[in-house]
Amino acid sequence: MPDSTTSLANELARERNREAADRTLLAWVRTSLAMISLGFGIERLGQAAVGFDGPLMGFSPFKTRIFGAALITLGIAATLAGMWEHRHILRAIKNDDYRYADRPPIARYMGIALVLVGLSALAVIFVF
């Protein structure tokens, strides 16, 4: 039977892991909010550019709508991925035999998706 010092240390470690998981979820939410806001802003800029007769005439409402929607979709996916990861971590922490388990690198996948959206935007800007 473990002594009370070991038990207390384990519980404090679990609490720190729980708090770290909560901070990570909040980081996902902030990142998602930024992507969704940027996507919305890009889409609105494309709609506003329709009425201008100046340097913004080259904006296409269709292109900005597509890229705005892509960023909004990516932001929603990032929120869902963060929530999934948070739930997975909390479930693992509750186990008595809690051990670190390697997880899929969700942030890397989101980064790759964001790079693809950016490269697509560059291609559309320079090619079309």
Low-confidence regions: none
Percent range of helical residues: over 70%
Question: Could you tell me the mean pLDDT?
Answer: 85
Give the CA-CA distance, first to last residue. Answer: 71 Å
- Discrete helix count: 3
Q: What would the principal axes of the Cα set say about the shape?
A: elongated
Q: How many discrete structural domains?
A: 1
Order of helices and strands: HHH
Largest sheet: none
Strand content: under 5%
Rg value:
21 Å
Structural class: mainly alpha
Notes on the structure:
80% of the residues lie in helices and 0% in strands. It has one domain (4-127). The longest helix has 46 residues, at 4-49. It is mostly helical. Helix 1 packs antiparallel against helix 2 (61-94) and helix 2 (61-94) runs antiparallel to helix 3 (106-127). It is built from 3 helices and no strands. The protein is elongated and about 75 Å long.
